[in-house]
């Protein structure tokens, strides 16, 4: 049994296209390898646009989500973040006093400093 030519991979990787093609002209084994590679390239080309599309869609979605969060978050922080009482009202349904925070307070609700 004739030994299979193993040059294809080396030629494909290291040699230029001309050398590879010259060898392909005279080597049946490598022609088969080349056919396989062509098939793979075809498949890649077939799949590539779909794959790219698939990848970019969620990416755009992610960017849109981040932008949306930034706009909504930024707007609400701008309005609410500067007003602690409003933040408390939103979080707890009422404005919190120092006592509610767990600080020691006197009977007037002022912070008790010892
Ligand atoms: Zn060969």
Percent of residues in helical segments?
over 70%
How far apart are the termini? 100 Å
Q: What's the Cα radius of gyration? A: 35 Å
Shape: rod-shaped
Mean pLDDT: 78
User: DSSP helix count?
Assistant: 4
Query: Total number of β-strand segments?
Result: 0
Bound molecules: zinc ion
Low-confidence sequence ranges = none
The protein's oligomeric status is: single chain
Q: In percent, how much strand structure appears in the residues?
A: under 5%
For the biggest sheet, the summary is: none
Helix-strand makeup class: mainly alpha
Q: N-to-C SSE series?
A: HHHH
Give a written overview of the molecule.
- The chain is built from four helices and no strands.
- With 114 residues, the protein is mainly α.
- It has a domain at 7-82.
- Helix 2 (17-26) runs antiparallel to helix 3 (28-81).
- The longest helix is centred in the middle third of the chain and has 54 residues, at 28-81.
- It starts with 6 loop residues before the first helix and ends in a 22-residue tail after the last helix.
- The mean pLDDT is 78.
- Zinc ion binds at residues 5, 7-8, 23, 27, 29-30.
Main traits of this protein?
0% strand; mainly alpha; 114 residues; binds zinc ion
How would you summarize what this structure contains?
Helices cover 71% and strands 0% of the residues.
Structural topology:
Blueprint (H helix, E strand, L loop, with lengths): L6 H8 L2 H10 L1 H54 L2 H9 L22
Helix pairs in contact: 2-3
Zinc ion (ZN) binds next to helix 1 and helix 3.
């Amino acid at each position: 049994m004739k030994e299979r030519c193993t040059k294809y991979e080396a030629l494909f990787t290291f040699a230029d296209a001309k050398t590879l093609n010259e060898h392909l002209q005279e080597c049946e084994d490598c022609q088969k390898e080349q056919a396989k590679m062509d098939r793979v390239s075809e498949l890649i080309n077939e799949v590539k646009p779909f794959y790219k599309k698939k990848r970019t869609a969620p990416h755009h979605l992610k960017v849109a989500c981040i932008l949306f969060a930034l706009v909504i978050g930024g707007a609400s922080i701008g309005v609410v973040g500067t007003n602690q009482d409003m933040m408390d009202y939103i979080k707890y349904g009422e404005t919190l006093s120092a006592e509610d925070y767990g600080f020691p307070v006197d009977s007037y609700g002022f912070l008790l400093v010892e």
